[in-house]
């Protein structure tokens, strides 16, 4: 699990702790509104949507941290909300930069144009589909994720990976680090970071991974696709992931701290230190039900979003894979 975090190196820092659902016997449609904020602590800030939006609008260069492992759907929804807010409410002529760091519970995340059964077995691990392209990746608490949002006219695909590589070079010789044409990062010829991108109307983002101390055995198992009929795969036209040998950064450099990488990336991107945040935003509350509406959390949690199939297709596919006589369903 990632540790060694500090609060230095930022112009403004927000740390989000996602609240947990009550385990109450209520209809599923009501569950998401039954949420409590965690008690306020001096080291954790829990901004509401309005306060988070105000911070982004005021500061322009901002770092957001969500480093308590959370379900992947929450962080995909957070990315979606930030993108939507920047497009709708922020002057896109400004040179803003929003840098988001987050950690997910174990899961596989596939690209928007992929077929899930080409990439993993969704019956053994939580799966989600992101809105950006690229290939399938494994996330767990030993993997640091980052997303860099900028105006579309200032977007450079290499900027985020440059920030990560520069921060790593504080401890790792530059000769051991290599960036591929796909903006992946390799340490001693083993992949430690992958990238994906999304370009929207006026805003774009690059999100990537950084393997620090992930469970590589589980990674290998999770990214092993289920055996699938060849005729079905070939007919889908989905993009496939590029397979690479991977490594953990901490296996080679055990003293390298996540905090130093976060600080280094923020400084590289011009996000400077600022201590006014504590005084300006004391004891904030986090309105999760409001956030859910804004961020399309339900879309990401819906299994049909990850699989690309409705329940009728999934039932047919399940019977096909289990060797039963399968009839293509009538979806009318």
TrEMBL record:
Pathway: Protein modification; protein lipoylation via exogenous pathway; protein N(6)-(lipoyl)lysine from lipoate: step 2/2. Transmembrane segments: none annotated. Residues 93-257 form the BPL/LPL catalytic domain. Catalyzes both the ATP-dependent activation of exogenously supplied lipoate to lipoyl-AMP and the transfer of the activated lipoyl onto the lipoyl domains of lipoate-dependent enzymes. Belongs to the LplA family. GO terms for biological process: protein lipoylation. GO terms for cellular component: cytoplasm. This is Putative lipoate-protein ligase A. GO terms for molecular function: lipoyltransferase activity.
């Amino acid at each position: 699990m990632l540790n060694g975090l500090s609060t230095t190196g930022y112009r403004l820092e927000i740390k989000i702790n996602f609240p947990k659902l009550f385990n109450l016997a209520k209809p599923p449609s009501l569950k998401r509104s039954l949420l409590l904020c965690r008690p306020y602590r001096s080291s954790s800030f829990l901004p509401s949507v309005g306060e988070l939006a105000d911070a982004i609008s005021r500061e322009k260069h901002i770092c957001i941290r969500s480093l308590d492992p959370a379900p992947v759907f929450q962080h995909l929804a957070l990315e979606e909300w930030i993108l939507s807010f920047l497009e709708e409410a922020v002057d896109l002529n400004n040179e803003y930069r929003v840098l988001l760091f987050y950690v997910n519970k174990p899961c596989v995340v596939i690209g928007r144009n992929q077929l899930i059964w080409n990439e993993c077995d969704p019956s053994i691990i939580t799966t989600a589909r992101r809105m950006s392209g690229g290939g399938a990746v494994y996330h767990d608490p030993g993997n640091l994720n980052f997303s860099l949002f900028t105006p579309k006219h200032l977007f450079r695909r290499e900027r985020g990976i440059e920030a990560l590589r520069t921060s790593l070079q504080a401890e790792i010789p530059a000769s051991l680090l290599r960036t591929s044409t796909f903006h992946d990062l390799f340490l001693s010829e083993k992949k430690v970071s992958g990238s994906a991108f999304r370009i929207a109307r006026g805003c774009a983002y690059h999100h990537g991974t950084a393997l620090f101390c992930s469970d590589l055995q589980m990674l290998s198992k999770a990214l092993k696709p289920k055996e699938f009929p060849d005729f079905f795969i070939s007919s889908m036209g989905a993009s496939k992931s590029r397979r690479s040998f991977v490594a953990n950064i901490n296996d080679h450099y055990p003293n390298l701290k996540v905090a130093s990488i976060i600080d280094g990336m923020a400084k590289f991107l011009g996000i400077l230190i600022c201590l006014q945040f504590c005084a300006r935003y004391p004891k904030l509350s986090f309105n999760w039900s409001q956030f859910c509406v804004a961020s399309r959390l339900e879309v990401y949690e819906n299994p049909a979003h990850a699989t690309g199939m409705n329940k009728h297709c999934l039932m047919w596919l399940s019977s096909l894979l289990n060797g039963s006589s399968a009839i293509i369903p009538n979806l009318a």
